[in-house]
Amino acid sequence: MKHWEIYIHIFSGVKKYERAKRGVSVLINKKWKGSIKNWESIDERILRLDVNIWDYKLTIIGIYAPKEDNGATVKDEFFANLNEEIVKSGSGRQLILMGDMHGRTGRRTGDTVVGNFGEDKRKDNGERLIELCTQTSLKIWNGFFNHKNIHKYTWSQHTKNLKTIIDYVITKQDLELKIQNVRAYRGPNCGTDHKLLVAKILFPYMYTKTNTKRRKRITMVDKKRKYN
Hints:
alpha+beta; 6-stranded mixed beta sheet
């Protein structure tokens, strides 16, 4: 018998009477329902979710960026709104941005924003994203893990033999959580030309005065264990 997980679906999109041309959503397992502190639909391209998990205050921002051929005005408005949400998250929260940025960020050696294992090309949306991440001290994790090309490209169009990286996992550079891996998977299929992008994230144990019993138990079981 299959075990079905139940998820809470938080969605931000265009008005019901409009064609569903833009939208972004976040799914969170029902077991974390009590951890959800707040969520806000900024517009049809940006969705913010605040959760507290294992003593960490975490803000997740879901993104669907304008396409490369959209006008400069549309792009300027989007990146201004995104920058505002990043700044509003403050220094006391862990921050993760996820979604379709419609931008190619290329690769760089010895850089704190863009890794060495991305693709060769970089375009306008990618330049804008890099500039935003540089100004707000964020890190685009896709290019920091050396995978085969089939596990790097997040979008493909077989009829034109096109492949590229336009979906990203982005965090603060001083993130307290540990990003172990980011890669694309080809198997899952839900009627889209995008690949499933998965990030493996570990939450280091938090030792607080209010968690004395848990701290003692962990110390007695395994002093070397660092992550949950």
